[in-house]
Write a structure and sequence with these properties.
With 444 residues, this protein is α/β, with parallel strands linked by helices. The chain has three domains: 96 residues, Udp-n-acetylmuramoylalanyl-d-glutamate--2,6- Diaminopimelate Ligase, Chain: A, domain 1; 203 residues, Mur-like, catalytic domain (UDP-N-acetylmuramoyl-L-alanine:D-glutamate ligase); 125 residues, Protein-Tyrosine Phosphatase, Chain A. The protein is built from 17 helices and 20 strands. The strands form four sheets. It has a seven-stranded parallel sheet with strand order 6-7-5-8-9-10-11, sandwiched between helices. A six-stranded mixed sheet has the order 15-16-20-17-18-19. The protein has a four-stranded parallel sheet with strand order 1-2-3-4. A hairpin with a 2-residue loop joins strand 13 and strand 14. The N and C termini lie far apart (62 Å).
Length: 444
């Protein structure tokens, strides 16, 4: 059977047929997992030789096999060295089609989520709650694009009872494409904010692009989880099958009360107080989504409480770090105008001496100058003692305040400001991933 399959793939320069994907899937079921990185190869993996702007995975196929991979999927004939190398027309398309076939083969509930802010935190919270009752498999980190979603689906196996798939997008039709791969049964959009404005062409484009998930779920008669306090979500899902949550009585299927965020978010549900380890009231709705989805899937209230209270953020996302007498709010994984404004609003409520270190926000296109100026104006108007703007975009902003300074690059900031002697201070570190502002920690 394998020989027939091998030559079928190698004799055709068209997309693999369903029969060919089924044959490849039968091989995959005997493999450990799908892998695209030889640095992470494990014995019996199926290696997919993807290409990028600066690398050609085909050239690593032989190494993957030497490291123990069961098969290497390639799309350049010169790398066809043995029966363990399988030549296809396009490795990426084969990976995506195999993942979609595998998802159908498993036939388990898939929850998809997207949104401008809070996707990964919400995904982690949902996973924490549902794993109290079910065997779950969720997106690792932020593997949420056209490669990450297939890899997430292929990481699921016969033991998985519920899959949780995060979907990211920076242009129109991307969420539509990812839904066509993952075929979600349930979906949730965290919010619609000013993220990836360059690719979406503005806020209206963001709403349209993220709502492609709604379009898929409504067309396929699936269920949407809705924040009843978000007017856009309510309007976009008025003709859908929904399960809603809110912090006002009478407008949602379940009510979740916001108690405070001093600094950690505290909420109440069904008579239970839930004290999270997440800072900022902007995380309240992320927590609500996890509570609501857990309730929908009949996870016991006490287990929901336990899961949320035990969840500790990581990966530079809303982390609180104590260094000496200083408290650092590290939120340097990513930034856009919406999340930056929310972080600043929360930071202003902190007590004591406050320093904000803010890095550039990327992928704003023609809106970059206006949005950076807007955030600069907002920060300066707030009760924050010192503000340091880092990056080329913030450097171009007009700053008329003695409490604020601008630096064109991180190295310029680092060489001009000594953080080693600060004491009894609360610091906010916030910027886009490319700014890597977590480097500030080494200087405190």
């Amino acid at each position: 059977m394998y020989q027939d399959f091998f030559y079928t793939f190698n004799s055709s320069k068209i997309k693999p047929s369903l029969l060919e994907i089924k044959a490849l899937h039968s091989l995959f079921l005997n493999c450990n997992s799908a892998n695209t990185d030889t640095r992470k190869i494990r014995p019996n993996d199926m290696f997919f030789a993807l290409k990028g702007d600066n690398f050609n995975g085909n050239s690593y196929a032989e190494k993957a096999l030497e490291l123990g991979a069961a098969y290497a999927i390639i799309d350049e004939e010169e790398y066809l060295t043995s029966e363990k190398t399988i030549l296809v027309d396009n490795v990426l398309e084969t990976l995506q089609q195999l993942a979609s076939f595998h998802r159908t083969f498993l036939n388990i509930p898939i929850i998809a989520l997207t949104g401008s802010n809070g996707k990964t935190t919400t995904k982690e919270l949902i996973n924490a709650v549902l794993s109290q009752k079910f065997k779950t498999t969720a997106t690792i980190g932020n593997l949420n694009n056209h490669i990450g979603v297939p890899l997430t689906l292929l990481s699921m196996n016969a033991d998985t009872e519920i899959g949780i798939v995060e979907m990211g997008a920076n242009h129109l039709k991307e969420i539509e494409f990812l839904c066509a791969i993952a075929h979600p049964d349930y979906g949730y959009i965290t919010n619609f904010g000013k993220a990836h404005l360059e690719g979406f062409g503005g806020v209206e484009g963001v709403i349209k692009g993220k709502s492609e998930m709604y379009d898929y779920l409504i067309a396929n008669h699936k269920t949407i989880f809705v924040n009843a306090n978000d007017t856009i979500q309510v309007e976009k899902t008025k003709n859908a099958s929904i399960f809603s949550f809110g912090n006002s009585n009478g407008i949602a299927d379940i009510t979740i009360e916001f108690k405070n965020a001093q600094p950690f978010v505290k909420s109440a549900f069904n008579g239970l107080d839930i004290e999270s380890q997440l800072i900022g009231d902007y995380n309240f709705h992320n927590i609500c989504a996890a509570i609501a989805i857990g309730h929908y899937f009949k996870v016991e209230d006490q287990l929901i409480k336990k899961a949320i209270e035990n969840y500790i953020p990581s990966n530079n996302r809303s982390q609180i770090i104590e260094k000496g007498s200083n408290k650092i709010i590290l939120d340097a994984y990513n930034a856009n105008p919406t999340s930056m404004a929310a972080a600043l609003s929360n930071f202003e409520k902190q007590k004591g001496y406050k320093i904000a270190i803010l890095g550039d926000m990327f992928e704003l296109g023609k809106d970059a100058k206006r949005e950076h100026q807007s955030i600069a104006d907002l920060a300066i108007a707030m009760d924050i003692d010192s503000i340091f703007f880092v990056g080329e975009n913030f450097y171009k902003s007009t700053i008329n305040s003695k409490k604020a300074k601008q630096y064109k690059s991180f190295s310029e900031f680092e060489s001009n400001f000594d953080l080693s002697n600060i004491e009894n201070t609360t610091l906010l570190i916030k910027g886009s991933r490319g700014m890597a502002l977590e480097r500030v920690l080494d200087a405190i």
